[in-house]
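To illustrate the input format used throughout this study, we show a single complete record. The first block contains the structure-token representation of the backbone; no residue identities are included at this stage. The design step must infer an amino acid for every position from geometry alone.
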């Protein structure tokens, strides 16, 4: 099970349109990169897939369910199967890294276990193993406000890996990392998706990372799908048309215009 979006549109409460007539589908195990200029609607699209936003129009089937037709308890269960890596992880500054990672399973645990995990870690080996894959194991008991932006992003990735969702979403997950860590982190996400046959959809600013790691690339411009192609068919001319409104050319890992 993956997802299917049919003619999805989204407008903000002030009437400003963000997405228009988006139709996309993905199977379990697919790894997809979404690219496009700033403000094109990438984050809004991921928020709909995460069931955090309800489309203004169209239908969405996610992991075999229609989210906005579900009861509250069924929607909570569906959301426990969806993991979202935020560009700026919503982690309380004074929270410890291990607690932030354990929060990935709060939607799956009974209330008593969730409360206990906030007082004393109910699992240490699991979060530690996730951090080891991201070369961050030495930060397990550190406070999150002592970490750099790139380290916080890796904690966010570790939380989603620990959650073990069927649908993995990542919104600019490596924007605060250097090129080496960016590649390593994307590699871990793809490895995790393949290991569990989970669907991975990542919104990426750096075009070169998307082309290097993802077999399928979706270009979004002005809230619409500009193209949906295998990475091998995404040419320089297609990319330059997609980013025609961006100053400075194609955004890459090294922030150069080289392709």
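Output of the design step:
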């Amino acid at each position: 099970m993956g997802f299917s979006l049919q003619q999805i549109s989204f407008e903000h409460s002030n009437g400003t349109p963000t997405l228009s007539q988006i139709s996309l589908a993905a199977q379990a195990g697919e790894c997809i990169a979404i690219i496009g200029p700033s403000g094109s609607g990438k984050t809004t699209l991921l928020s709909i897939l995460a069931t955090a936003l309800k489309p203004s129009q169209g239908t969405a089937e996610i992991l075999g369910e229609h989210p906005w037709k579900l009861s509250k308890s069924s929607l909570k269960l569906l959301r426990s199967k969806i993991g979202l890596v935020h560009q700026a992880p919503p982690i309380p500054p004074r929270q410890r890294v291990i607690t932030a990672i354990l929060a990935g399973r709060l939607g799956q645990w009974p209330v008593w276990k969730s409360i206990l995990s906030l007082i004393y870690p109910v699992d240490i080996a699991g979060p530690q193993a996730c951090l080891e894959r991201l070369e961050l194991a030495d930060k397990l008991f550190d406070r999150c406000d002592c970490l750099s932006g790139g380290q916080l992003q890796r904690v966010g990735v570790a939380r989603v890996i620990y959650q073990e969702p069927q649908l993995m979403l990542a919104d600019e997950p490596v924007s605060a990392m250097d090129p080496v860590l960016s590649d390593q982190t994307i590699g871990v996400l793809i490895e995790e998706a393949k290991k569990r046959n989970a669907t991975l959809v990542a919104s990426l600013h750096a075009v070169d990372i998307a082309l290097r790691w993802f077999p399928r690339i979706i270009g979004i411009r002005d809230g619409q799908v500009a193209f949906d192609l295998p990475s091998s068919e995404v040419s320089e001319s297609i990319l330059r048309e997609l980013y025609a409104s961006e100053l400075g050319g194609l955004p890459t890992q090294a922030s150069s215009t080289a392709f």
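Structural context for interpreting the output: Residues 82 and 250 are 31 Å apart (CA to CA). The radius of gyration is 18 Å.
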